[in-house]
Structure formats: C-alpha cells, structure tokens
Write a structure and sequence with these properties.
- There is one protein chain.
- The protein is an alpha/beta fold.
- It has 3 domains: 10-212, no CATH class; 280-562 and 605-610, Alkaline Phosphatase, subunit A, CATH 3.40.720; 614-647, no CATH class.
- It is 42% helix and 11% strand.
- It has 21 helices and 13 strands.
- The strands form 3 sheets. Strands 10-3-9-8-1-6-4-5-11 form a 9-stranded mixed β-sheet.
- Strand 4 (370-375), helix 16 and strand 5 form a beta-alpha-beta unit.
- Helix 2 (20-40) crosses helix 3 and helix 20 (564-571) runs antiparallel to helix 21.
- The longest helix is centred in the C-terminal third of the chain and has 27 residues, at 470-496.
- The protein is globular, with a radius of gyration of 29 Å.
C-alpha cells in the first residue's frame, strides 16, 4: 500500500490569506501594532507589549477587526477598509502628537475640545508646522478621492448573510471578551491613571471605552431611601455605616446614629462676619526642587516655599498631569470626585453643558456671598463663559476685559495683572466675596531651544535625567519665579485689606515634562501643593488632601458648613463607605432623581456678567478727511475699552 502525502499548494494558501475575513484580522493586527507603537512612542515598546501581554493585544486586535468588518458590506471594499484603517492611523498619530505636549493620552473627549485647541494652537505649533498639517490634510483628502475613483467594485453577488454574520461574530466577540476581561481583572472599566491604563489595556480598548463610558454609572445601591439616609446623616453629623446604604428586602428601623468624631479642624476664633475667600489656581505650578538631582543658581520659589513651611499647607492630589486644568478646576469648585466619571472625561464638555451643579458658589450664596471668576486667558476656553453660569458665578472677568497685559516669550499673559482684577471684584460688592482666580503664566508647551535672554536663574540637570529637559525646565523655572513674585505682591495686597480675607493657592497639575514618578522626591506625578494664608490669625496645620476635598476643608477651617457635598466631606471621612456616599450623591445630583433635593434642583444658572466694569460708548464722531471724496474717520469714545474691544 502506498501512502500519498498531500503537498501544500502555495497558491491555495495565498488564496486563503486574501479572503476578506482573513484580511480583516491581518490588517487589524498590523493597525494594532502601529497604534501601540504610537501610544508607547516606541516600536520596541509595542513588541514588548505584544509578547508580555498577548491576550490583551489580541483582544484589542479583535476590537479593530470588528470596526473593519463593516467594510465588507461595501462594493468598494478596498476603499472602505482603507478609510477605516486611516481613522485608526489618525487616532494613533494624534495620540503620539499629544503625548509630546502632555502626559495624558488621546481620548474621545478630546474631540470635543477641538474648538479650545484651535484657540491655543499658536502656543504649541509654528506656522510652518501648521502649514505642513494643512498640506497633509489636503493630500489625504485628494488621496481618498483618487482611491475612490480608482478602486474596483466587488463584482458578483455579495453574500450579505455571511458578512453580517461575520460582523455579528466580531462585535459579539468584542463584547463577551470585554466582559470576561473585566471579570478576570485583565481589563478595568474605570482608570485611576489614564496613561497607565493605555499601557496596560491598550489604546483601542481605552479609546473605545472613552466613547462609551461617560458620565457616572448608576451606583449599585442607589435608591431614594439610600440617598435620604446619606442626606440625614450628613445633616446630623453622624457617620454612615456600610449597613446603612445596603438595601434590604424588609423595611428596617433607622439605625441609632453613631456620633461623628469631634472635627480635628476648628476655626481659631469667631469672626464677626465670614471672611472674603480668594482661591488662586496657579497654572502648572509646583516646586521644581522636588525633581531629584536638579540644582538651581537661586531658589525659584522662595515666597511660596516660605508660605508652605509657615502656614497651613499640604500636598494636593489632583486628577491630571501635564494638562487637564479644567478637571482639577471641576473638582475644586464642586467637591466632586472625577474618578467616578468616564476615562478622560471633561464634565465641562459633557454634563455641565446641560445642567447646573452644586458648587462652592451656590453654597456660599446661601450666606450672601458674591461670587467671581477671573482668568487671564480667553473666556471661551473650555466653554468657561457658559459653564461658569452653570456653576453659579455672578461675574467672569476673562482676558478680553483686562488692560495692561504683559506677555511671556511664548505669548501667554503674565499673572501680575490678576491682582488688579481681584481688587476690582472685591470693591464691586458691599458684602463678602468668593473669588476664583485662574492663572496662565506657567502654561506650556515649553521651548526646546534657548529663547530667554540672560535668564535670572540657571539650572543643572543630573545624569539620570535626559539632557533634553534643560531648555524646557530652564524656561519653566524662570516663569514660575515671576509667578512667585506675583504671589509676593498678592500677599502684600491681602495684608493691605481692611476686611478679613483668606487666600488659598495651589497648582492645578504638574508641567508636561517627560518625568517618571521616580524622578520626584514625593514619587507622585499627581501631587501639587496648596497653601492657606489669611490676614487674620489662624492655626498652622499641615494636611494632605484630595483636590475635591479642598474647598470643604477651607470652609471647615472657617467654621462654615453649608451644602450637601461639603457636609459630606466634613462628616464622613471616617466612614468606611465615604467614597460610596460621595458617588451616590454625585450621581443623584447630576444623573439621578435629585432625591437629595426632594426632586427639585435648587441651583439655578446665573445670568453671568462678563467683566466687572461695564464697557460703554459715550460718543461716536465722524471727522471728514477728504471732503471731495467723502472720506471720514470714525472716532468712538467711551469707558473701559480693552485691546480686545471691537467696533
């Protein structure tokens, strides 16, 4: 008997590899490798990820294949697959570009930030780079048009049943693999650190997750009874126990309240009236001495260092690094924890577009405070001109309403102008004021070449850090030194006031340098520092905080307890379910049934006034220049014009 071995036919293999469904997975594999190369800024890093975490890599390949599977429904299949592939390539390249300026990866929410990004492109891109980008976009469009015309149509009868089945299988596989990954902790639904999540779980999953996973998921134990239980506890100052928020089938009697421990922070003295409260969010501000091994010819921040050492201060854990000012701002103003929202989400661009939110402003208004916002940058950035109404500000002075603005070499407004604007806000009302001030001088992107003439402070970079850090850090250090001078002048101004005033300053996030946590002596990229200064006596207490706890802590130091969120922070930090309570309240206020307010939102959007001083026209005069040709000059006179005023 003869045994015949079938010799593999190379032509058959080539034919199988050209099968559209096989092509989908091969292209998806290549695209996944590309986007991970971009995400890690390294081809070697992408291959390391492939071999050290193959299951997650293959899972992300399935996600991309699912998006490509739809292209099999089109006659011009090659064009459709190329178009979808280009979308993934653009996502990868965009992620790579953004990582050069910040440490936060590209998420779907960034697409909503396009308008804000256009406003500040000149600070990050040169005209030449912008021309190159425009040329690339034009060539891409021309290329797609050419491909559309040249691509051959699939002839014959399309097997829509097979294609739809394939699409269904890939999408269902993505869904079930996601569920399996979450249950086995191979994946995570919410990310504490977005950059780490992109490295651990892959760009495709994280990006798609940022599209689908927005807002706050309904808490497991959310109900009217649980919300009321929490509200009653914070109003009475008792600590909630885990059993208090776990629903039971049978109604139970209200548990005996557990007295809350005596607050560790109490006001130093009883004030005749509540003081003015001024918060200053310092752009990208932190003490560069925390970078291990870097030395300076003189102290960049002597004033701030003295304040931190001698007045109430501590580390502040913030939700972002390198960018994301609005998210630190959101946590500070609302007292809400951003971790409960979708990955990379900006509430300014999502939920706050449609609803108001409990905030320090609305709460202080119950004590007759007037609330002001001040920012030496454009008012439309992050849609602040709309969102600040939703957050309860009465006035908002953006750079369009300021005069005598000095600029940094990169074109950002210097912070010294803010003192005069704070003074205007304080003098604008007779009672107490809350003033939220947002600085901008320390903003990046930082230059990679020398642009400072005779910098006041020079630096030395240690060997364990890249020498590429020298020029960016040199520029940054000299800018925050000027910000430190601004802080000194602001302290002098506070001391000159006849009204009791407390000043709270903090950095919104670390600057966008390519540093690891191990490069910092506090070993955290998500910590800045805050300091509290007052022109009346207060005990010095050093305490580390989350940024969403800061304003509640300040109010507690002043003996103020208003609003549900501050009361929760002030009474529940010793509760085992402290964060569960916070999430339930956040969900109820923004997405739920408003049970905490008996179903009616008491926070009504303000009629936000832009600027303090009204801009008025007193006279319009036409002066003839050439009588024969009827040419005139129009002269408009009035009050409080600024360089941004337009006729």
């Amino acid at each position: 008997m003869q045994i015949h071995f079938h010799k593999p036919d190379l032509h058959d293999w080539k034919k199988k590899l050209k099968h559209p469904m096989v092509v989908c997975f091969l292209v998806a594999f290549g695209l996944n490798l590309f986007v991970e190369t971009m995400s890690r800024c390294s081809l070697f890093g992408a291959f390391e990820y492939l071999f050290t975490n193959p299951l997650v890599f293959l899972y992300n390949t399935v996600i991309i294949a699912a998006t490509l599977s739809i292209t099999l429904l089109f006659r011009k299949r090659t064009f459709a697959m190329t178009f979808v592939s280009l979308l993934w390539i653009i996502i990868g390249i965009t992620d790579f570009v953004l990582l050069q300026f910040r440490t936060t990866p590209f998420t779907a929410v960034d697409i909503l930030m396009v308008k804000s990004a256009i406003e500040i492109w000149q600070y990050y891109l040169s005209v030449f780079q912008l021309v190159l980008i425009a040329a690339a976009v034009v060539l891409l469009i021309i290329g797609l048009i050419f491909l559309w015309k040249k691509t051959k149509r699939v002839t014959g009868k399309l097997s829509y049943i097979k294609v739809l089945a394939f699409c269904g299988i890939t999408f269902l596989s993505s869904f079930f693999l996601t569920e399996a990954g979450l249950k086995t902790t191979l994946l995570a639904a919410n990310f504490g650190n977005l950059a780490d999540a992109f490295h651990d779980y892959g760009l495709p999953y994280c990006f798609v997750n940022s599209i689908i996973n927005t807002g706050i998921d309904k808490p497991k134990h959310y109900s009217s009874d649980v919300v009321n239980q929490i509200v009653n506890a914070v109003e009475e100052g008792v600590v909630v126990k885990p059993s208090d928020i776990v629903p039971t089938e049978e109604p139970v009697a209200t548990p005996t309240p557990t007295p809350s421990p005596t607050p560790t922070i109490v006001p130093e003295e009883t004030l005749d009236s509540h003081p003015n409260i001024i918060m200053v969010q310092l752009e990208s501000f932190f003490d560069p001495a925390h970078i291990t091994g870097v030395t300076f010819t003189s102290d960049p921040v002597p004033v701030y260092r003295n304040l931190v050492n001698n007045y109430s201060s501590g580390y502040l854990n913030v939700p972002s690094v390198g960018a994301g000012t609005a998210n630190t701002e959101f946590e500070i103003i609302t007292g809400m924890n951003l971790d409960f929202f979708g990955p990379g989400e900006y509430p300014y661009k999502t939920i706050l577009q449609e609803t108001t939110c409990e905030s320090v402003n609305f709460n202080l208004k119950t004590l007759d405070y007037t609330t002001h916002a001040i920012h030496n940058n454009t008012g439309t950035f992050y849609d602040r001109n709309k969102i600040f109404s939703q957050l309860g500000f009465d006035t908002f002075t953006s750079i369009e309403y300021m005069n005598n603005i000095e600029r940094t070499p990169l074109g950002w407004a210097k912070d010294e102008v803010l003192i005069g604007e704070i003074d205007k806000a304080l003098k604008d009302s007779e009672g107490q004021d809350f003033i939220y001030t947002i600085s901008v001088q320390g903003h990046g992107s930082y230059p990679t070449e020398p642009i400072l003439e005779n910098p006041e402070i020079d630096i030395t970079i240690p060997e364990h850090l890249s020498s590429d850090l020298y020029y960016p850090l040199l520029y940054y250090v000299n800018q925050i030194h000027e910000m430190d001078d601004f802080i000194a002048d602001l302290i002098d101004y506070i001391d000159s006031l006849s009204e009791d005033t407390i000043l709270i300053m903090y950095g919104d996030h670390l600057p966008g340098f390519k540093l690891d946590a191990s490069d910092l002596d506090n070993e955290s990229l998500f910590q800045t520092q805050y300091v509290m200064y007052s022109n009346f006596p207060m005990e010095t207490i050093h305490k580390d905080l989350e940024s969403y706890q800061l304003y509640s802590y300040v109010l507690e130091r002043l003996g103020i307890s208003v609003g549900l969120i501050p009361k929760l922070h002030q009474t529940q930090q010793d509760s085992e379910v402290y964060l569960d309570e916070l999430k339930i309240l956040e969900y109820d206020m923004l997405y739920g049934d408003l049970d905490c307010y008996d179903g009616v939102n008491p926070n009504v959007a303000t009629n936000l006034q832009m600027g303090i001083d009204p801009i008025t026209i007193n006279n319009v005069q036409l002066i003839p220049v050439n009588d024969t040709e009827n040419e005139n000059i129009c002269i408009v006179t009035g009050d409080n014009f600024t360089p941004y005023s337009k006729i």
